Amino acid sequence: MGVLDHVSDLFDCSHGHSKKKRKQFQTVEIKVKMDCEGCERKVRRAVEGMKGVTQVDVEPKHHKLTVIGYVDPAKVVARVAHRTGKKAELWPYVPYDVVAHPYAPGVYDKKAPPGYVRNAYEDHQISQLARASSTEVRYTTAFSDENPAACSIM
Question: What span, in angstroms and rounded, lies between the C-alpha atoms of 112 and 117?
């Protein structure tokens, strides 16, 4: 809290009123199935009228809606689902390079856009499968060509 905020709180005459919590400026990415231009227009119009929205980007090829502004992600998802009647969820994919084991069960998704895999760090059950154990790493690096101290039996 800055000095000006502190001083203004000291001299504030509205003691009975509670302060509203400010929403943070953020980018919300949502997965919504869009088949045609009509679906794209319907999804865009569902969020353009929301309070706090500054920018709306629609990528129908990837079934992705990006909303930028002072908004709550849960409210944006609920509004899209209610206004369009479509299933809407937060964008479940991350770039391929971010995940340690992109082909682990539960991470690789055939429906994901090119260059993306499912985010394994949000789902704890999947993240256990995707993360290699220390013994597994030791055994695989023991016979690796990149390891100079590897076993040379082969």
Answer: 6
pLDDT digits (tens, 9 = 90+) for 10-27: 777 665 555 566 778 999
Q: In what order do the strands lie in the sheet with 53-59?
A: 53-59, 64-70, 25-32, 88-90
C-alpha dist (Å) from residue 121 to 17, 33, 65, 131: 40, 24, 22, 10
Q: How far apart are CA 47 and CA 80, in angstroms?
A: 7
Q: 121: Cβ–Cβ under 8 A, 6 or more apart, which residues?
A: 127
C-alpha span between 23 and 148 (Å, rounded): 53
| Strand (E) or helix (H) holding 134 | helix 134-142
Q: What is the pTM of this model?
A: 0.62
User: H-helix or E-strand containing 69?
Assistant: strand 64-70
128 — pLDDT class (breaks 50, 70, 90)? very low
Report the alpha-carbon distance of residue 128 to residue 107 in Å, rounded.
Answer: 11
Q: How many CB atoms lie within 10 A of CB 63?
A: 19
